[in-house]
Design goal:
By secondary structure, the chain is an alpha+beta fold. Helix content is 41%, strand content 40%. Strands 1-2-3-4-5-6-7-8-9-10-11-12 form a twelve-stranded antiparallel barrel. The chain starts with a helix and ends with a strand.
Length: 419
């Protein structure tokens, strides 16, 4: 009975003591316990005071609520304060890191904004530059089109001028170097531009020349010789040309015929270009006292004007042909009918307006016989269309009848009139 009462009184006393301690602690939060040392109370107060100043209002309310509902305990309060201090330090460090990171991001954002502004400025300048370049390109394109039009007109004018100059040079050269083919203008003719243009518009494609030579010699015998030549050309510039050359020669001694020779050359040229042409020609010779009574050559081929200037002219021809040669009566019968290859060249040089030189050569080669011919000519203008001509004609034939010579040489001075 006594023990039960003692336990009941002790329990009530202990409960009343706990209520008093809790009430004092809730009033000023500075409760000290009689059973704790004074130094521990001072240390606990110093640890709690800065912590209470740093806690937020929400944390203080939670802490007060926890203290009001939890019995006071020195060791649990110290641990809780230490834990809160550690957590506060971590949050402060985290806050500092976040603040520093935010500051870094703000700096980066400023840099990005500055770079973006710089890029936008560069883009604006580039767009302005592109617009200027497009405008310049358009202006250049218009200038290029205008230059193309001018160039086309200039080329057309240059082409017409070159063609006219080439025609004038060709005409002048033919007049100066081949007066026996082209008629020369009279010296007293008007050379004004109007007259020249009128002559060009009324150009006559027909031209030619006449050549005569006569010799008389009397000593023990009386020798007379007569030769003549007629050349007629019909030419359409840079299109086609027909060349006709008729030559004859007679010689007698004391009334007896010693030489009788005729030759007719006919050639047609068709121009593929101003310098290139194809040709077809026939060369027929008849002579009573030559190696062959009849000697005909027919040929076709290709020709080119290799050199053509005011002073020099060089033409060449090459092609296949066919040769027919019949000996005179009483000669050994050596008849030739065979295919041949013909090569020909013509060169002329103009020393001056009055003096010209020309040389030409031909090779006709076949299996049975070959013929080599060379002609050198010099002509000098005497008066207007009258010329004095010296020529030397050399011919060598590889196969001839017996008692006849392989070489034939003809030379002389002749008068030529161009019309």
């Amino acid at each position: 009975m006594f023990n039960s009462r003692f336990l009941l009184v002790f329990t009530i006393s202990l409960a009343l003591l706990s209520v008093v301690i809790i009430s004092l602690d809730n009033e000023d939060s500075k409760l000290t316990f009689s059973y704790l040392p004074a130094q521990e109370n001072v240390r606990l107060e110093q640890a709690r005071q800065p912590h209470a100043e740093q806690l937020s209002q929400h944390q203080l309310s939670q802490y007060q609520l926890q203290e009001s509902s939890t019995p006071p305990s020195f060791w649990s309060m110290e641990s809780h304060i230490a834990y809160n201090n550690a957590e506060l330090k971590q949050q402060k460090a985290l806050h500092q890191r976040l603040l520093k990171k935010s500051q870094n991001q703000a700096e980066q954002l400023k840099q990005f904004i500055a770079e973006n502004n710089a890029l936008q400025e560069q883009l604006r300048k580039r767009e302005q530059m592109i617009q200027e370049q497009n405008a310049h390109l358009e202006a250049t394109r218009q200038q290029y089109q205008a230059l193309q039009v001018e160039l086309s007109e200039a080329q057309k004018m240059q082409k017409d001028e070159d063609l006219l100059m080439a025609q004038n040079k060709e005409m002048k050269f033919k007049i100066d170097s081949q007066p026996d083919i082209i008629k020369r203008p009279k010296h007293n003719e008007d050379s004004s531009p109007d007259k020249i243009q009128q002559k060009k518009e009324t150009y006559n494609p027909l031209s030619g020349s006449v050549q005569f030579g006569y010799s008389y010699e009397q000593d023990n015998n009386v020798n007379r010789s007569l030769d003549g030549r007629l050349i007629v050309d019909y030419e359409i510039r840079d299109k086609y040309k027909i060349h006709n050359d008729l030559y004859f020669e007679f010689e007698d001694e004391d009334g007896k015929t010693k030489t009788s020779k005729q030759r007719w050359q006919l050639q047609g040229d068709y121009h593929l270009a101003p310098e290139d042409f194809i040709y077809s020609r026939s060369d027929m010779q008849h002579g009573r006292f030559s190696s062959y009574k009849r000697e005909d050559v027919y040929a076709v081929g290709y020709g080119r004007k290799i050199l053509h200037s005011d002073k020099h002219t060089l033409n060449a021809e090459f092609g296949p042909g066919y040769k027919i040669a019949q000996p005179n009566e009483g000669e050994d019968e050596i008849t030739i009918n065979e295919a041949i290859i013909r090569a020909y060249y013509f060169y002329s040089f103009v020393f001056s307006d009055a003096l010209q030189f020309s040389a030409e050569g031909a090779v006709q080669t076949g299996r049975k016989s070959s013929t080599y011919n060379s002609v050198v000519k010099a002509q000098n203008r005497i008066y207007q269309e009258l010329y004095l001509v010296f020529d030397l004609d050399y011919t060598y034939t590889t196969t001839v009848p017996e008692d006849t010579k392989n070489r034939e040489v003809t030379s002389g001075l002749k008068l030529l009139y161009a019309f």
